[in-house]
## 1
Amino acid sequence: MKKPPVVALLSSAISVQYLADAFETAQPGIDVRMGDDLGPLEDIDVAVCWFPPHGRLAQFPNLQLVQSLAAGVDHILADPALPRHLPLCRIVDDTMAAGMKAYVSWAVVQHHRGMKAYVASSDAAKWEEQPVVSPRRHRVGIAGLGTLGLACADALATIGYQVRGWSRSAKSDLPAGVTGFHGADQLDEFLSGCDTLVCLLPLTPQTQGFLNADLFAKLPRGAHLINVGRGDHLVEADLLPALASGQLSAATLDAFSVEPLPKDHPFWGHPNILVTPHIATRTDRLVIAQQTLANLAVLRAGQHPLNQIDLERGY
Ligand code: NDP
């Protein structure tokens, strides 16, 4: 009988202990290892990663698959010793998309409808209406029309917002009511119609620092920025002047260059910045285990794994 796979759980950022039970549920008797002592390194078949320690993946001589435990892979591609001949895969999951739809819809609505003012009125027992702008007259732009961006575009169009999206390549199958833009040539036109801009790009050398002073200047005055991509999409030093000048009216931020956001960071407590601690959505632990094991099985059968990353594109 073939021995069960040996899975290494690797992270320099979080405890990955929570995944061990999910792998045991997905395949009882499986050999899951984590921490500094992984036993004989030649045993490891698959590594499941979130910010793996640099150089670690290169130490497994029989590794067959590098699996991100999330949608993004920037945290793995950052390893200069990444064994690039191996397949690198990510998780794509309806539950994750549903969580992102809920967060982004909330973030758009809470600012567009002035919900912060209602919380203050409620606390002060004041019956006070905020101006109501129809969603039809509020334009939401989504940078990144991948699995998550498309799900958010669809949800916001269903609520009634005017939705546009921007991607690298042209899209022929956008959800009803969503206008598509693509490539560097159409970026300015896209940005000029974003009363709210949502960043759902992957972090690559091309998208690092995408959210900067030049880009803010191309948005309509008073735009709302929502960053649910990665912290390094935003040039943090450019945000405060854009808010101070009124070019941006608010920012809702879920991802930061340094996480947890340091206690003395100027974003905390800023009246126009809403900070959430990278919780826009989460990957279901059982889905991580199931997709990892399914990918290993198809690789062993000589087929292509699901959701493999194009290393040249970086996503
Ligand atoms: P996908 O890989 O499915 O989609 C990426 C999209 O970005 C595609 O539409 C792609 O264009 C576009 N894109 C990539 N590079 C460029 C570029 N240079 N110019 C223009 N468009 C570009 O990613 P997902 O939707 O699954 O996830 C997006 C990101 O969301 C993840 O990488 C991760 O960083 C973040 N995330 C954040 C979470 C949170 O809780 N805050 C949770 C999960 C993910 P094209 O379609 O033409 O290829």
Note: Residues 6-93+283-300 form a domain with the Rossmann fold fold (CATH 3.40.50.720).
## 2
Amino acid sequence: KKSVDDINVKGKKVLVRCDFNVPLQEGKITDENRLVAALPTIKKLIADGGKVILCSHLGKPKGEAKPELSLAPVAKRLSELLGQEVTFAADPEVVGPNAKAAVDAMKDGEVVLLENTRYRAEETKNGEAFSKELASLCDVFVNDAFGTAHRAHCSNVGVTQFVDTAVVGYLMQKEIDFLGNAVNNPERPFVAILGGAKVSSKISVINNLLDKVDTLIIGGGMAYTFSKAAGGNIGISLCEDDYLQYALDMQKKAKEKGVKLLLPVDHRIGDAFSNDCNIQIVKSGEIPEGWEGMDIGPETEKLFCDAVKDAKTVVWNGPMGCFEMPNFAHGTAAVAKALAETDATTIIGGGDSAAAVNILGYGDKMTHISTGGGASLEFLEGKELPGVAAANDK
Ligand code: 3PG
């Protein structure tokens, strides 16, 4: 696959698709990891004398120019991070007169950021007209938006049909290398830890990982569906009754494949969905009526952390409980600590688990924290991501 190392961009207009879909609160960026992760590619293109035109989506404005979803705050913060002005092409049409004027005025090594690509309704439909408009701005296209790679939209897929050269950036390359190696060529033992609320969002991930791992650990809200399927009492815990048979099938598959499948043996439960509710620790399958499983229990923490100790590769996606409530963050914190302390290659899927690891201060202890939430999940499902495939075609 061709990357930014294989092209000469001196004096050329380079359109770079990044994933600057960052959380904002009152115009302030509350997690800038995606911006920091995009810097190596941007710096390289600046150093090589390219005219660097950045673009991204932000949130879901659904074709409307919603001011609260403008990328203006991102341009400001990127300027600070790069130590050089990032000109914001405030243009509700994204590739309208303002954007064209800003691009025309660029000198080599300068940077322009376009407005939120989803201000245009065609973006998410991968329409031809907007793809062509984007392509018309540049000589070369660079896709560095791993977080968006599971979407087939104009700015990451459609545009590649109308440019002569499309390559991937360093972030995209790094994500594919780490996630790809972990899943397809892992140093063993290979342990995967899955959590989060819903079985239904991880059906293909569980199925695919059972073909790859030595141990699969399932915690979080998902585990109660497995517990109920095994005949346990789960009180009012999260459960997807449509997936009870699936849970049994996956347990059978694990047995057939010789994969160790670890499920919680105890839980921290509450009598209300609140940090200040009454709390008990009970064995798995013994949750009383009216009580809800909110976290794994101490025995489970030990079981899961011991399973990670001898691993050589660990992939983690999804929290072990309601970690945003301090009283139910113990399980997620214990797993994060175990991963920080192991010598294994540790790969954290994006979204909640990445946030948890960073909040707990273990960010720099992990081998790789993915910038992709949905994208890293689809990667673990073994799917080919459209954003990656499109950049490969040229
Ligand atoms: C993400 O945050 O997962 C990506 O930026 C994709 O965003 P989307 O789910 O709105 O397409």
Note: The first strand starts at residue 13 and ends at 17.
